[in-house]
Structure formats: C-alpha cells, structure tokens
Amino acid sequence: MAHRMATESTKPVVAVYPGSFDPVTNGHLDLIARAAMIFDRLIVAIARNLEKDPLFGVKERVEMLEAVTFDWKNVEVDVFDGLLMDYAREKNARVVVRGIRAISDYEYELQMAMMNRKIEPQIETVFMLPAEQYSYLSSRLVKELARLGAPVVKDLVPPLVGDRLRAKVG
Ligand code: PNS
Predict the structure, then answer these.
(1) For ligand 1, is residue 19 a contact (CB within 6 Å)?
(2) Active-site residue 3, yes or no?
(3) % pLDDT > 90, the chain
(4) For every residue of the chain, which 3-state class applies, written as one string?
(5) CB neighbours of 142 closer than 8 A, spacing ≥ 6?
(6) What is residue 56's predicted lDDT score, i.e. its pLDDT?
(7) pTM to 2 decimal places
(8) Burial class, 65, CB count within 10 angstroms (exposed 0-12 / middle 13-18 / buried 19+)
(9) Cα–Cα dist 111/127, whole Å
(10) Looking at residue 10, what is its pLDDT?
(11) Does the pLDDT at position 101 exceed 70?
(12) Quick one: which atom of ligand 1 is closest to the CA of 52?
C-alpha cells in the first residue's frame, strides 16, 4: 500500500467537476478557479441530464463554459452521459469536485458522494466552498431572475452568459 501510494502521488491528479451548468454562474467560475489551483487537470463535465428540462442546449452550455474558462490552461470542458463514476473512471480521474454553498446542499451531496463511493471506491469526492458572495447563487434562481427581468443578473453570471440569457428569455 505504501509503495502504491508513493507511485500514485507522482501522477498528475485529474479531477472532474460535474454539473448541469444551465447556465454557468460566477459561483461555478469561482469554484473552477479554486479547483484549477489544486488539481493538475480539471475537467468540467456537463451532464446530458435527461430528467431536467434545460434552458440551454448542451452545445450552448459547452460554448459558454469554454469561453469563460479559456484562460485556465489546465481546465477543459466536456459532456458526459450515464453514470458519473463510469465517466470519471474513463478519464482516469482520482477526484470528483462538488461545491457546497450552504448546509442545505449537504444532505443531497452526501447521498450522492456515498453512492458514488459505493460504485467506485477509488475516486474521492472533494467538497469545495465558493466565495461567500456566491453562497446564495444558483443557476435556477439566475434563470428565474432573467425571466422576470431583474437587473441583478449581470452581477451573478459572466457578461457573455448574461447576453445569452437576455437573448433567450428577454
Ligand atoms: O449541477 P447538478 O445538476 O446538481 O449536477 C448533478 C450531477 C450531474 C452531478 C448528478 O446528477 C450526476 O452525477 N448525474 C449523472 C448520473 C449519475 O451518475 N447518477 C448517480 C449519482 S449517485
């Protein structure tokens, strides 16, 4: 075990940051910035979530994420179908990153992390905290505010996402 740990620690650590990103917010970006500083390679993985009815198509979500993460050379954007753990394994990821804003996120995240650990015990879920000013921010609320024409949206998402939101629901 000691030997295995020693050899593994020299390998670049790949992390997957999964989510719907419908659309990417400043809170997501804050987390991406923090995770990109810790892990060698960060794959932001958009779930082709069939249960939810997304506002933005997968292609649009990829375009927005690619544009706003362009400056981080160790960050890439991808799309996955099916089980997150199958995808993470396929990418040789050691870590899944999830953001926790408030204690209310914790129960669902704990359930998911434990289930994912049962599926693949070799991959760790790492919870990260976004900056305090994003602790109330969610894609769902951003979409609602955009639909209702609230001007605060521009402070909550990157400018490019704000433009796309306005074009979509304005
Ligand atoms: O940003 P979200 O919508 O909270 O992200 C949820 C996501 C996409 C991470 C989660 O639904 C997921 O992992 N879906 C893939 C299917 C899967 O692996 N389900 C089992 C989870 S225990």
Answers:
(1) yes
(2) no
(3) 85
(4) CHHHHHHHCCCCCEEEEEECCCCCCHHHHHHHHHHHHHCCEEEEEEECCCCCCCCCCHHHHHHHHHHHCCCCCCEEEEEECCCHHHHHHHCCCCEEEEECCCHHHHHHHHHHHHHHHHHCCCCEEEEECCCHHHCCCCHHHHHHHHHCCCCCHHHHCCHHHHHHHHHHHC
(5) 23, 25, 153, 156, 157, 165
(6) 95
(7) 0.94
(8) buried
(9) 13
(10) 77
(11) yes
(12) 3
Q: Which of 61, 98, 101, 143 is catalytic?
A: 101
* Gap from CA of 150 to ligand 1 centroid (Å): 29
Say whether pLDDT at 69 is over 80.
yes
Closest residue CA from atom 14 of ligand 1:
84
pLDDT confidence tier of residue 72, bands split at 50, 70 and 90: very high
pLDDT tens per residue across span 40-64: 999 999 999 767 789 999 999 999 9
What separation in Å is there between the alpha carbon of 164 and the centre of ligand 1?
24
- Residue 62 and residue 85: Cα distance in Å, rounded? 21
